């Protein structure tokens, strides 16, 4: 694993804190179920990945979810939602990072974010069907949903929500990226030379 400099570790800590605050500023979107909340906490993780590499993005996702779990807790007592958020964040950040490193243009970043949204949405739908929703019903002592009901909920609720959330995060990130791309490139160069 790559060793981080003190500057990188401090930056990852700061970006994790910003990510945690953004996670607290979540909000529901009316057509989707109330338990699905939009937040912009993946943006600092993506910035960390672009500057310091993919491990930094994963660390920001991890630290933000650990902080949120200890500060706000979980309805299940077990961090099922936090684990789901962590996995969704990784499924968004890593594809975007790897595709962008191959293309290195604004159009390349746009394409990377769209592909990352699709990857995250599809994989999270599968994980929700087989792992996450069954874990929620198990830990909340609720009756399990029948397969057709669960499939309908994922196809009509979770999948479109993840696509919407990914595209919304992509839009906000592209607005920031258009202003910050030169600075991010300079920071990448500095972190690579350390």
Automatic annotation (TrEMBL):
Q: Which residues cross the membrane?
A: 6-25, 45-63, 83-100, 112-132, 152-177
UniProt keywords (A-Z) are: Cell membrane, Membrane, Transmembrane, Transmembrane helix, Transport
GO annotations of cellular component type? plasma membrane
**What subcellular locations does the record give?**
Cell membrane
Mostly located where?
membrane
Recall the GO molecular function terms of this protein's record: riboflavin transmembrane transporter activity
Q: What does this protein do?
A: Probably a riboflavin-binding protein that interacts with the energy-coupling factor (ECF) ABC-transporter complex.
Look up the domain of life of the source: Bacteria
Query: Which family is it part of?
Result: Belongs to the prokaryotic riboflavin transporter (P-RFT) (TC 2.A.87) family.
What name has this protein been given in UniProt?
Answer: Riboflavin transporter
Q: How the protein sits in the membrane?
A: Multi-pass membrane protein
InterPro entries named in the record: ECF_trnsprt_substrate-spec, RibU
